[in-house]
Give the backbone structure.
Amino acid sequence: MTKKIIALLLLVTTITFAQEKVLLRLKYEKGDSYTLNMKMSQNMGSVMSMDMNIAMIQDVKSASSTEYTSEMKITKVVMNMVQQGMPMSYDSTKKAEELDDTGKMMKSQMDPMLKAVITMNVNNLGKVLESKVEPNIPGISDLANQSSNVVYPEKAVAVGDTWTMSKNNKGMDFNFVYKVKSITSKTVLLDVTGKVAGVAAGDIIGTMNIDKKSGVPTESKIDMKMKLQEQDLKTTINMTMSKN
């Protein structure tokens, strides 16, 4: 009889956890500061390959129950690229005299980006309501869009629930499907799938880990396999967000 009671309690506990619902919302507080690290690799066979590591600081300047304003600054860029057999590298932590000729050329282009401030206004679902860059440097807004990689659903979700998000960037439509894989006392783990259409076409697969208390995505990995101009293009983006 005791064994049956224990088994029943375990079953009830399992069902309870399986039915737990979480209302995913960003819960920033004014004065919060985060470090975002993004590692991106792209491979297009003999045409091009690239590895890039970008570090950014995000400071929350204002916060309400529904909206947040943050300022983001790039603190480091490291890039290694091979384009049509020609290697190029750049490291923002190095002085000009430590770089080769291509690195010096890239430094002149990248240095203004390191001085830019990205101001973003987002709601508690993670949707970007407004963004601006001062000074207005081409390419910076793309980084801001990359850092905002999920918009939460209106309703609470349980294990097995899904929702979708779409965005367009440089002629490509990205259609994401998020599925709740597990919920623990501290985290919500998502499986990410989707399709790319437009200039390039292909598939998306990955995972995302969300801090349950703050709603901040702390870690994500996205793999995209696409066809671009009849060439195979594989892109992998790893992102981490940690509170300072």
Summary: The mean pLDDT is 86.
